[in-house]
Write a structure and sequence with these properties.
- The chain is of the alpha/beta class and 393 residues long.
- The chain has helices at residues 20-31, 47-58, 72-86, 101-113, 128-136, 157-163, 186-199, 239-242, 256-266, 275-284, 289-313, 338-349, 363-366, 378-392, and strands at 34-35, 96-99, 119-124, 140-145, 147-149, 152-154, 168-174, 202-206, 232-237, 250-253, 316-318, 325-329, 351-352, 354-355, 369-373.
- Helix 7 links the parallel strand 7 and strand 8 (202-206).
- The N and C termini lie far apart (59 Å).
Protein backbone atom coordinates (compact mmCIF):
# COMPACT_ATOMS: atom_id res chain seq x y z
CA UNK A 1 0.00 0.00 0.00
CA UNK A 2 1.41 3.35 -1.02
CA UNK A 3 2.13 5.79 1.82
CA UNK A 4 1.34 9.46 1.35
CA UNK A 5 4.36 11.57 2.16
CA UNK A 6 2.82 14.97 1.48
CA UNK A 7 0.79 16.44 4.38
CA UNK A 8 -2.93 16.45 3.68
CA UNK A 9 -3.62 19.87 5.17
CA UNK A 10 -2.78 22.92 3.09
CA UNK A 11 0.47 24.33 4.46
CA UNK A 12 -1.11 27.77 4.85
CA UNK A 13 -3.40 26.34 7.54
CA UNK A 14 -0.98 23.95 9.21
CA UNK A 15 -0.19 26.30 12.09
CA UNK A 16 -3.79 26.71 13.22
CA UNK A 17 -5.20 23.30 14.21
CA UNK A 18 -8.31 23.07 16.39
CA UNK A 19 -9.49 26.39 17.76
CA UNK A 20 -9.01 27.16 21.43
CA UNK A 21 -12.78 27.69 21.68
CA UNK A 22 -13.49 24.06 20.78
CA UNK A 23 -10.88 22.83 23.25
CA UNK A 24 -12.10 24.93 26.16
CA UNK A 25 -15.79 24.30 25.48
CA UNK A 26 -15.11 20.57 25.48
CA UNK A 27 -13.24 21.01 28.78
CA UNK A 28 -16.22 22.87 30.24
CA UNK A 29 -18.58 20.06 29.21
CA UNK A 30 -16.29 17.35 30.53
CA UNK A 31 -15.80 18.98 33.93
CA UNK A 32 -19.26 20.50 34.38
CA UNK A 33 -17.68 23.95 34.63
CA UNK A 34 -19.28 27.32 33.91
CA UNK A 35 -18.16 28.27 30.41
CA UNK A 36 -17.07 31.91 30.37
CA UNK A 37 -14.72 31.18 27.48
CA UNK A 38 -16.70 31.24 24.26
CA UNK A 39 -18.60 34.45 23.56
CA UNK A 40 -22.20 33.44 23.08
CA UNK A 41 -25.19 34.44 25.23
CA UNK A 42 -27.03 31.78 27.23
CA UNK A 43 -30.44 33.33 26.50
CA UNK A 44 -32.16 34.14 23.21
CA UNK A 45 -32.78 37.63 21.94
CA UNK A 46 -36.10 39.49 21.62
CA UNK A 47 -39.16 37.26 21.38
CA UNK A 48 -40.67 39.38 18.61
CA UNK A 49 -37.60 38.81 16.46
CA UNK A 50 -37.69 35.07 17.02
CA UNK A 51 -41.37 35.14 16.05
CA UNK A 52 -40.47 37.14 12.94
CA UNK A 53 -38.23 34.24 11.88
CA UNK A 54 -41.03 31.76 12.53
CA UNK A 55 -43.42 33.91 10.50
CA UNK A 56 -40.94 34.05 7.62
CA UNK A 57 -40.62 30.26 7.66
CA UNK A 58 -44.40 29.79 7.63
CA UNK A 59 -44.90 32.38 4.90
CA UNK A 60 -42.27 30.79 2.70
CA UNK A 61 -39.90 33.75 2.88
CA UNK A 62 -36.32 32.64 2.37
CA UNK A 63 -37.00 28.91 2.40
CA UNK A 64 -35.49 28.72 -1.09
CA UNK A 65 -32.34 30.47 -2.26
CA UNK A 66 -32.52 34.15 -1.32
CA UNK A 67 -30.91 36.72 -3.63
CA UNK A 68 -27.13 36.49 -3.69
CA UNK A 69 -26.53 39.96 -2.18
CA UNK A 70 -29.19 39.36 0.52
CA UNK A 71 -32.93 39.94 0.66
CA UNK A 72 -33.92 43.51 -0.27
CA UNK A 73 -35.67 44.07 3.08
CA UNK A 74 -32.49 43.40 5.02
CA UNK A 75 -30.22 45.36 2.70
CA UNK A 76 -32.54 48.35 3.05
CA UNK A 77 -32.60 47.99 6.84
CA UNK A 78 -28.78 47.86 6.95
CA UNK A 79 -28.51 50.98 4.78
CA UNK A 80 -31.04 52.78 6.99
CA UNK A 81 -29.13 51.72 10.11
CA UNK A 82 -25.85 53.14 8.79
CA UNK A 83 -27.48 56.39 7.71
CA UNK A 84 -29.55 56.99 10.85
CA UNK A 85 -26.79 56.13 13.34
CA UNK A 86 -23.65 57.34 11.61
CA UNK A 87 -24.69 59.57 8.73
CA UNK A 88 -23.26 57.09 6.21
CA UNK A 89 -25.36 56.81 3.04
CA UNK A 90 -25.13 53.46 1.22
CA UNK A 91 -27.09 52.25 -1.78
CA UNK A 92 -28.78 49.02 -0.61
CA UNK A 93 -28.56 47.56 -4.11
CA UNK A 94 -24.92 48.35 -4.90
CA UNK A 95 -23.18 48.92 -1.55
CA UNK A 96 -24.59 46.33 0.87
CA UNK A 97 -23.82 42.61 0.89
CA UNK A 98 -25.30 40.07 3.33
CA UNK A 99 -22.96 37.28 4.51
CA UNK A 100 -23.01 34.14 6.64
CA UNK A 101 -22.04 36.03 9.75
CA UNK A 102 -19.10 38.35 10.18
CA UNK A 103 -16.69 35.43 9.88
CA UNK A 104 -17.60 34.90 6.25
CA UNK A 105 -17.48 38.64 5.65
CA UNK A 106 -13.90 38.74 6.94
CA UNK A 107 -12.91 35.73 4.83
CA UNK A 108 -14.54 37.05 1.68
CA UNK A 109 -13.04 40.52 2.09
CA UNK A 110 -9.53 39.20 2.58
CA UNK A 111 -9.78 36.59 -0.20
CA UNK A 112 -11.07 39.29 -2.54
CA UNK A 113 -8.65 42.08 -1.70
CA UNK A 114 -5.35 40.41 -0.77
CA UNK A 115 -2.86 38.97 -3.25
CA UNK A 116 -0.12 36.49 -2.28
CA UNK A 117 2.70 38.48 -0.73
CA UNK A 118 0.56 41.42 0.35
CA UNK A 119 0.98 42.50 3.95
CA UNK A 120 -2.05 42.90 6.20
CA UNK A 121 -1.72 44.86 9.44
CA UNK A 122 -3.90 43.57 12.29
CA UNK A 123 -4.22 44.86 15.83
CA UNK A 124 -2.87 42.21 18.17
CA UNK A 125 -4.40 40.41 20.06
CA UNK A 126 -6.87 39.55 17.32
CA UNK A 127 -9.80 37.21 16.78
CA UNK A 128 -8.35 33.91 15.58
CA UNK A 129 -10.08 33.82 12.20
CA UNK A 130 -8.15 36.93 11.11
CA UNK A 131 -4.85 35.05 10.99
CA UNK A 132 -6.37 32.06 9.22
CA UNK A 133 -8.13 34.20 6.59
CA UNK A 134 -4.98 36.22 5.89
CA UNK A 135 -3.11 32.93 5.44
CA UNK A 136 -5.77 31.48 3.11
CA UNK A 137 -5.50 34.62 0.97
CA UNK A 138 -1.73 34.16 0.77
CA UNK A 139 -1.06 37.37 2.64
CA UNK A 140 1.48 38.09 5.35
CA UNK A 141 0.09 39.25 8.66
CA UNK A 142 1.87 42.08 10.40
CA UNK A 143 0.73 42.45 14.02
CA UNK A 144 0.66 45.80 15.78
CA UNK A 145 0.25 45.13 19.47
CA UNK A 146 -2.28 46.84 21.72
CA UNK A 147 -0.50 47.18 25.05
CA UNK A 148 -1.93 47.46 28.57
CA UNK A 149 -1.55 50.88 30.12
CA UNK A 150 -3.33 52.51 33.06
CA UNK A 151 -6.09 49.90 33.21
CA UNK A 152 -6.80 49.77 29.48
CA UNK A 153 -5.26 48.65 26.19
CA UNK A 154 -3.92 51.33 23.89
CA UNK A 155 -2.76 51.58 20.28
CA UNK A 156 0.75 52.92 19.67
CA UNK A 157 0.25 55.04 16.56
CA UNK A 158 3.99 55.31 15.97
CA UNK A 159 4.25 51.52 15.95
CA UNK A 160 1.35 51.36 13.50
CA UNK A 161 3.00 53.85 11.15
CA UNK A 162 6.31 51.99 11.33
CA UNK A 163 4.57 48.73 10.37
CA UNK A 164 3.47 50.08 6.98
CA UNK A 165 5.75 49.12 4.08
CA UNK A 166 5.53 49.22 0.30
CA UNK A 167 3.95 45.75 0.49
CA UNK A 168 1.13 46.76 2.86
CA UNK A 169 -2.27 46.25 1.21
CA UNK A 170 -4.69 46.90 4.03
CA UNK A 171 -5.26 47.50 7.73
CA UNK A 172 -7.62 45.08 9.46
CA UNK A 173 -9.30 46.94 12.33
CA UNK A 174 -11.57 45.69 15.09
CA UNK A 175 -13.36 48.22 17.27
CA UNK A 176 -14.91 47.68 19.76
CA UNK A 177 -12.04 45.25 20.12
CA UNK A 178 -12.19 41.55 20.96
CA UNK A 179 -10.60 40.39 23.25
CA UNK A 180 -9.38 43.53 25.06
CA UNK A 181 -12.63 45.53 25.12
CA UNK A 182 -10.85 48.62 23.79
CA UNK A 183 -12.91 51.15 21.82
CA UNK A 184 -10.63 53.17 19.57
CA UNK A 185 -11.05 56.89 20.12
CA UNK A 186 -11.85 59.51 17.51
CA UNK A 187 -8.24 60.71 17.70
CA UNK A 188 -6.86 57.21 17.15
CA UNK A 189 -9.20 56.49 14.26
CA UNK A 190 -8.41 59.85 12.68
CA UNK A 191 -4.71 58.99 12.77
CA UNK A 192 -5.39 55.57 11.21
CA UNK A 193 -7.50 57.21 8.50
CA UNK A 194 -4.83 59.79 7.71
CA UNK A 195 -2.24 57.01 7.43
CA UNK A 196 -4.50 54.98 5.11
CA UNK A 197 -5.06 57.96 2.83
CA UNK A 198 -1.40 58.95 2.85
CA UNK A 199 -0.19 55.42 1.97
CA UNK A 200 -3.17 54.51 -0.24
CA UNK A 201 -4.26 51.58 1.95
CA UNK A 202 -7.56 49.76 2.18
CA UNK A 203 -9.21 49.27 5.58
CA UNK A 204 -11.37 46.31 6.56
CA UNK A 205 -13.08 47.09 9.85
CA UNK A 206 -14.89 44.56 12.04
CA UNK A 207 -17.55 46.45 13.99
CA UNK A 208 -19.76 43.60 15.21
CA UNK A 209 -19.76 44.98 18.78
CA UNK A 210 -20.81 48.47 17.65
CA UNK A 211 -23.83 48.58 19.99
CA UNK A 212 -21.98 47.15 23.00
CA UNK A 213 -20.13 50.21 24.31
CA UNK A 214 -20.21 51.47 27.89
CA UNK A 215 -19.52 54.43 30.13
CA UNK A 216 -20.11 56.99 27.42
CA UNK A 217 -17.65 55.46 24.96
CA UNK A 218 -18.34 56.39 21.34
CA UNK A 219 -18.36 53.93 18.49
CA UNK A 220 -17.17 55.78 15.40
CA UNK A 221 -17.07 53.97 12.03
CA UNK A 222 -13.80 54.83 10.33
CA UNK A 223 -15.71 54.97 7.03
CA UNK A 224 -17.26 58.23 8.24
CA UNK A 225 -13.89 60.02 8.36
CA UNK A 226 -12.50 62.10 5.47
CA UNK A 227 -11.16 60.05 2.58
CA UNK A 228 -12.24 56.73 4.06
CA UNK A 229 -15.63 55.84 2.59
CA UNK A 230 -14.18 54.72 -0.76
CA UNK A 231 -11.37 52.66 0.80
CA UNK A 232 -13.21 50.97 3.70
CA UNK A 233 -15.10 47.69 3.98
CA UNK A 234 -17.24 47.87 7.13
CA UNK A 235 -18.37 44.57 8.64
CA UNK A 236 -21.44 44.24 10.87
CA UNK A 237 -23.39 41.37 12.35
CA UNK A 238 -26.69 40.62 14.05
CA UNK A 239 -25.44 37.88 16.35
CA UNK A 240 -23.87 39.99 19.08
CA UNK A 241 -26.45 42.78 19.03
CA UNK A 242 -29.58 40.60 19.06
CA UNK A 243 -28.30 37.45 20.83
CA UNK A 244 -29.01 35.09 17.95
CA UNK A 245 -25.45 34.00 17.22
CA UNK A 246 -26.57 30.73 15.60
CA UNK A 247 -28.45 32.52 12.83
CA UNK A 248 -25.19 33.70 11.24
CA UNK A 249 -26.40 36.90 9.61
CA UNK A 250 -23.65 39.39 8.86
CA UNK A 251 -23.02 42.06 6.24
CA UNK A 252 -20.61 44.48 4.67
CA UNK A 253 -21.13 48.05 3.55
CA UNK A 254 -18.67 49.54 1.09
CA UNK A 255 -18.33 51.39 -2.20
CA UNK A 256 -19.78 49.65 -5.28
CA UNK A 257 -16.30 48.63 -6.42
CA UNK A 258 -15.32 47.11 -3.06
CA UNK A 259 -18.71 45.44 -2.63
CA UNK A 260 -18.43 43.86 -6.07
CA UNK A 261 -14.97 42.56 -5.25
CA UNK A 262 -16.07 41.03 -1.94
CA UNK A 263 -19.19 39.53 -3.54
CA UNK A 264 -16.98 37.87 -6.16
CA UNK A 265 -15.30 35.87 -3.39
CA UNK A 266 -18.38 35.42 -1.18
CA UNK A 267 -20.44 33.79 -3.94
CA UNK A 268 -18.05 30.83 -3.96
CA UNK A 269 -18.07 30.39 -0.18
CA UNK A 270 -21.68 29.96 0.93
CA UNK A 271 -23.36 31.58 -2.11
CA UNK A 272 -26.38 32.38 0.10
CA UNK A 273 -27.46 31.56 3.65
CA UNK A 274 -29.91 32.22 6.49
CA UNK A 275 -32.87 33.02 4.22
CA UNK A 276 -35.74 33.29 6.74
CA UNK A 277 -33.46 34.79 9.37
CA UNK A 278 -32.60 37.66 7.04
CA UNK A 279 -36.21 38.82 7.13
CA UNK A 280 -36.21 38.64 10.94
CA UNK A 281 -33.00 40.65 11.26
CA UNK A 282 -34.44 43.29 8.93
CA UNK A 283 -37.10 43.80 11.62
CA UNK A 284 -34.52 43.66 14.42
CA UNK A 285 -32.51 46.52 12.95
CA UNK A 286 -35.63 48.66 13.13
CA UNK A 287 -36.22 48.06 16.85
CA UNK A 288 -36.62 51.28 18.87
CA UNK A 289 -33.64 52.91 20.54
CA UNK A 290 -34.90 51.64 23.90
CA UNK A 291 -33.89 48.10 22.93
CA UNK A 292 -30.27 49.08 22.35
CA UNK A 293 -30.18 51.21 25.50
CA UNK A 294 -31.51 48.33 27.60
CA UNK A 295 -29.02 45.91 26.05
CA UNK A 296 -26.09 48.19 26.94
CA UNK A 297 -27.35 48.77 30.48
CA UNK A 298 -27.82 45.05 31.07
CA UNK A 299 -24.36 44.15 29.78
CA UNK A 300 -22.75 47.04 31.66
CA UNK A 301 -24.17 45.70 34.93
CA UNK A 302 -22.93 42.20 34.10
CA UNK A 303 -19.51 43.58 33.20
CA UNK A 304 -19.32 45.27 36.60
CA UNK A 305 -20.48 42.14 38.42
CA UNK A 306 -17.86 39.92 36.80
CA UNK A 307 -15.08 42.53 36.90
CA UNK A 308 -15.54 43.12 40.62
CA UNK A 309 -15.68 39.38 41.30
CA UNK A 310 -12.49 38.79 39.34
CA UNK A 311 -10.72 41.58 41.22
CA UNK A 312 -11.83 40.08 44.54
CA UNK A 313 -10.50 36.70 43.39
CA UNK A 314 -7.05 38.28 42.92
CA UNK A 315 -6.87 39.12 39.22
CA UNK A 316 -5.77 42.45 37.82
CA UNK A 317 -8.78 43.46 35.72
CA UNK A 318 -8.89 45.57 32.56
CA UNK A 319 -12.44 46.89 32.64
CA UNK A 320 -13.64 46.95 29.01
CA UNK A 321 -15.17 49.98 27.30
CA UNK A 322 -16.96 47.68 24.84
CA UNK A 323 -17.73 44.08 23.76
CA UNK A 324 -18.70 41.45 26.30
CA UNK A 325 -15.28 40.27 27.36
CA UNK A 326 -13.08 41.11 30.34
CA UNK A 327 -9.30 40.67 30.08
CA UNK A 328 -7.41 39.88 33.28
CA UNK A 329 -3.78 39.57 34.33
CA UNK A 330 -3.04 36.35 36.22
CA UNK A 331 0.36 37.35 37.61
CA UNK A 332 -1.06 38.58 40.94
CA UNK A 333 -2.22 34.97 41.43
CA UNK A 334 1.34 33.73 41.00
CA UNK A 335 0.82 32.47 37.43
CA UNK A 336 2.44 33.52 34.16
CA UNK A 337 1.26 30.94 31.61
CA UNK A 338 -2.32 31.62 30.48
CA UNK A 339 -2.65 28.25 28.72
CA UNK A 340 -1.69 26.26 31.81
CA UNK A 341 -3.84 28.50 34.00
CA UNK A 342 -6.95 28.05 31.83
CA UNK A 343 -6.48 24.30 31.56
CA UNK A 344 -6.25 23.99 35.34
CA UNK A 345 -8.99 26.51 36.17
CA UNK A 346 -11.93 24.08 35.78
CA UNK A 347 -10.47 21.74 38.41
CA UNK A 348 -9.50 24.60 40.71
CA UNK A 349 -12.64 26.72 40.45
CA UNK A 350 -15.17 25.12 38.11
CA UNK A 351 -14.91 27.97 35.55
CA UNK A 352 -13.57 28.03 31.97
CA UNK A 353 -11.79 31.01 30.40
CA UNK A 354 -9.66 31.61 27.29
CA UNK A 355 -5.89 32.34 27.28
CA UNK A 356 -5.28 35.56 25.38
CA UNK A 357 -1.95 34.29 24.04
CA UNK A 358 -3.85 32.38 21.36
CA UNK A 359 -4.76 35.75 19.84
CA UNK A 360 -1.11 36.86 19.51
CA UNK A 361 1.74 36.26 17.10
CA UNK A 362 3.99 37.53 19.90
CA UNK A 363 2.85 34.85 22.35
CA UNK A 364 5.02 36.21 25.15
CA UNK A 365 3.13 39.53 25.04
CA UNK A 366 -0.16 37.76 25.75
CA UNK A 367 1.12 35.00 28.02
CA UNK A 368 -0.16 36.31 31.40
CA UNK A 369 -3.59 37.46 30.19
CA UNK A 370 -6.89 35.56 30.31
CA UNK A 371 -10.30 36.48 28.86
CA UNK A 372 -13.71 35.92 30.48
CA UNK A 373 -17.11 36.47 28.80
CA UNK A 374 -19.93 38.19 30.70
CA UNK A 375 -22.76 37.67 28.15
CA UNK A 376 -24.42 35.18 30.50
CA UNK A 377 -27.40 35.22 32.87
CA UNK A 378 -26.79 37.16 36.07
CA UNK A 379 -27.24 34.08 38.23
CA UNK A 380 -24.59 32.23 36.19
CA UNK A 381 -22.13 35.09 36.66
CA UNK A 382 -22.89 35.23 40.37
CA UNK A 383 -22.15 31.51 40.67
CA UNK A 384 -18.94 31.92 38.66
CA UNK A 385 -17.82 34.75 40.95
CA UNK A 386 -18.57 32.60 43.96
CA UNK A 387 -16.50 29.74 42.59
CA UNK A 388 -13.58 32.00 41.63
CA UNK A 389 -13.22 33.06 45.26
CA UNK A 390 -11.43 29.73 45.75
CA UNK A 391 -8.44 31.23 43.94
CA UNK A 392 -7.95 33.99 46.51
CA UNK A 393 -8.27 31.47 49.30
Amino acid sequence: MAVMTRPLLNSRLAEFGTTIFAEMSALAARTGSINLGQGFPDTDGPEEIREAAVRALRDGLGNQYPPGPGVPELRSAIADHQRERYGLAYDPDAEVLVTAGATEAIAAALLALVEPGDEVIALEPYYDSYAACIAMAGGTRVPVTLRPHAGAYVLDLNELRAAVTDRTRLILLNTPHNPTGTVLTRAELTAVAELAVERDLLVVTDEVYEHLVFDGAEHLPIASLPGMRERTVTIGSAGKTFSFTGWKVGWITASPELTTAVRSAKQFLTYVSSGPFQYAIAEALRLPAAYFDTLRADLSAKRDLLSEGLAQAGFDVYRPAGTYFVTTDIRPLGATDGFAFCRSLPERAGVVAIPNAVFYDHREAGAPFVRFAFCKRTEVLEEAVSRLKALSA
